[in-house]
Amino acid sequence: MIRAGIIGATGYAGAELVRLLLGHREVEIKWYGSRSYIDQKYAKVYGNMFQLVEDSCLDDRIEELAKQVDVIFTATPQGFLAGVLTEEILERTKVVDLSADYRLKDVAIYEKWYKIEHKSPQFLEEAVYGLCEINREQVKQARLVANPGCYTTCSILTAYPLVKEGLIEPNTLIVDAKSGTSGAGRGTKLPNLFCEVNESIKAYGVASHRHTPEIEEQLGYAAGESVTISFTPHLVPMNRGILATEYASLKKIKQPDGTVAYPSDAQVRAAYEKYYGSEYFIRLLEQGTCPETKWVEGSNFVDIGFQIDERTRRIVMMGAIDNLVKGAAGQAVQNMNLLFGFPETEGLKLVPMFP
């Protein structure tokens, strides 16, 4: 049994971590950290935890927490962990950070897109980008895991095999993604009020969303060169879920008979199977089936489908996740399982909820 602490336990991602860890056979939650609700019963903040969690919320003193637990989850705003993380903390405990503080290797890019100073760039090189299906072996050896963002998880996994295998022109990639309102967090914000969101859909962060460089960096590793994409997120009136629809030009490849031609459906599917065929949490849908957020809600699954447009020689790739599970807390637990040698699916064999 390992001991876990959560800083930011009363945000949506933090609450999802609590829900998942309560069902994990190898974990005991020792610390429910929340600067906003110190000394208040956790079950008073989240009534669904009545008679399940008796603890009260503590503060965010990470130095003290590190003395008591084996792993710390930080479901906190950008800048928090970077401002408090020390070598002493990492010597005592492993850290899975759900913010963007250690996802980008170039501190200048982080500071440009997030508009804050990075207070501990000395840990950037060490931090492992915790996209488990791609960086599994590196995660196992890590002290500090940078848990990927929700948009980035869906966008990267949907395109990764085709970029890696050279089946698409990565610089032609356009990502059109739509998210439920929980992705914006629990804080009170006028644009996220019910009357502002209901019966509407809107784009935001157009040509400026801060997940863009994260997607570009990771797909650049796959391509073996710098990648520039167009990424546009949208807010839709639902609680959970992300659907990413991605478009890219196909690249001609050498065929078995020696000719050069655009890849076929079978070749595209073979690329996905090569990387994801044995992955429990990635479901490659049958040809002609498009992912839907309702089929992954409440689960750690990623559903992926694709369609080649013969007329334009482009491919449409589609991915769906639950932004709070695979896009945040579920992926964090998946990373924790790798860190401590547990079965990767422990605590995460969640059947999607419907309706």
Topology:
Blueprint: E1 2-7, H1 12-22, E2 27-33, H2 42-45, H3 62-66, E3 71-74, H4 80-84, H5 87-92, E4 94-97, H6 107-114, E5 128-129, H7 132-140, E6 144-146, H8 150-164, E7 174-179, H9 194-197, E8 202-203, H10 212-223, E9 230-235, E10 242-249, E11 253-254, E12 260-261, H11 265-276, E13 282-284, E14 302-309, E15 314-321, H12 325-340
Parallel strand pairs: 1-2, 1-3, 3-4, 4-6, 5-6, 7-9, 13-14
Antiparallel strand pairs: 7-10, 8-9, 10-15, 11-12, 14-15
Helix pairs in contact: 1-12, 7-12, 8-10
Overall 3D geometry?
Answer: globular
Order of secondary-structure elements: EHEHHEHHEHEHEHEHEHEEEEHEEEH
Distance, first to last CA: 35 Å
How many helices in DSSP terms? 12
Low-confidence stretches: none
User: What's the pLDDT, averaged over the residues?
Assistant: 97
What is the CA-atom radius of gyration, in angstroms?
Answer: 20 Å
What does this entry look like structurally?
With 355 residues, the chain is of the alpha/beta class. It has two domains: 2-126, NAD(P)-binding Rossmann-like Domain (Rossmann fold, 3-Layer(aba) Sandwich), CATH 3.40.50; 151-323, Dihydrodipicolinate Reductase, domain 2 (2-Layer Sandwich). It is built from twelve helices and 15 strands. The chain has helices spanning 12-22, 42-45, 62-66, 80-84, 87-92, 107-114, 132-140, 150-164, 194-197, 212-223, 265-276, 325-340; strands at 2-7, 27-33, 71-74, 94-97, 128-129, 144-146, 174-179, 202-203, 230-235, 242-249, 253-254, 260-261, 282-284, 302-309, 314-321. The strands form three sheets. The protein has a seven-stranded mixed sheet with strand order 8-9-7-10-15-14-13. The protein starts with a strand and ends in a 15-residue tail after the last helix.
